[in-house]
Amino acid sequence: MIYLRPTGDYDLTIRGAFPVFYYQQTNALLTGVDLDLSFAVTSWLDYQGQAALLWADDLQHASPLFGMPPLQFRHSLLLHNQPNETQASLSAGIQIRQVLRQDHSPVDDFAPPPAGYAIVGLTAEWSRGKTRITAGVDNLLNRPYREYLDRLRYFADAPGRNIYLKTFVHF
Amino acid sequence: MFKQLILPAFLVTFAVLISGCGKDPDPVNEEEVITTLTMTWTPQGSGLPVVFQFRDPDGEGGNAPIVVSGPLAANTTYTVSLELLNETKTPATDITQEVRDEGTEHQFFFATTTGITLSFSYDDTDANGAPIGLETTITTGDVASGKLQVTLRHDLDKGAAGVAQGDITNAGGETDVQVEFDLIIQ
Question: Chain B partners of A11 at a C-beta cutoff of 8 Å?
Fold first, then answer.
């Protein structure tokens, strides 16, 4: 496979010093499991759980492979009504995403893998006929965190609390 | 009615995508390539000028840049002028005038590591009377050594708090130049 390898070197340019990455080819073994679980707790409450585990090794260099997602879990609970054909459908949910520190990572990197974190999000939805309105909050607790897969993690935290309102009209 | 529009709309989008791939995109107004920053320190009164230079004639990548700086005298006032060049072309293009002409979109900032006293004042202004920093007066403090960082920001907010006084914190914009010089005050 071809992946982006951090060299550990910086390239000095007139705009400052930049970390250097190279695309590199290697033989790799990726082993993983995705688990999904969803069931209706009651007629108005659904649970959904997901787990994603990936174990990746660079066979040629006998080391962990750079840039692979760490173990993560998602849980979500969704409250919803049961509208008939003329009623509006309403739902509200909470999502928790837990990501562990990537401990299976190569030593050669510009910074050690960031700490694990758990992020809470809220969503709400109203829809009737061809109109759908959704609102939500990402990173509700405004928790500072950095994502291992994000190359901006060398410089800054991931986005904080983000509130959105969206309207969809199908025609 | 709307459903009838979907197929034509899809075809039009597809056609745009196809032709988009077929011809070269219109040239965008590129950021200036800057390879060389020369900072000339002329002591007020008497003495020889001192030249700091960051030079990377083959641009980003390739050969490493060459950074030179010289010792400054303690407790001395210097008239400092900056010159920018693009040496990837022959003859080299002078970017200094471009920065001056687009003065309202550019500003230089100066910062030192702790332990060094340098006081800066801008000597030039753009069309709106805000500083640019191609011409400055810099007064050295006591004997010390460390680093001097010169930053050129493009498309910044020149009206933000502290920016006119040379504080980069609220400036925003994009970094065109960020160069670090060894600084020795003796």
Answer: 60-61
Q: Determine the 3-state secondary structure of B124 from DSSP.
A: coil
Residue B58 lies in a domain: yes
Counted domains in chain A:
1
Domain that holds residue A86: 30-169
Q: What's the complex ipTM? A: 0.70
Per-residue model confidence as pLDDT tens digits over B86-128? 988 888 889 999 899 999 999 999 999 988 888 999 999 999 9
Partners of A16 on chain B (C-beta within 8 Å) are: 175, 178-179
Strands (DSSP E) contained in chain B are: 36-43, 50-55, 66-68, 77-86, 93-94, 106-112, 118-122, 135-140, 144-154, 174-185
Residues in A whose CB is inside 8 Å of some CB of B read 11-16, 171
Q: Please give the angle made by the CA atoms of A38, A41 and A47, to the nearest 5 degrees.
A: 35
Any domain includes A5: no
- Does any domain span residue A142? yes
| Residue B145 in domain | yes
Q: If you search the block for the tokens 């989008």, which residue do you land on? A: B13
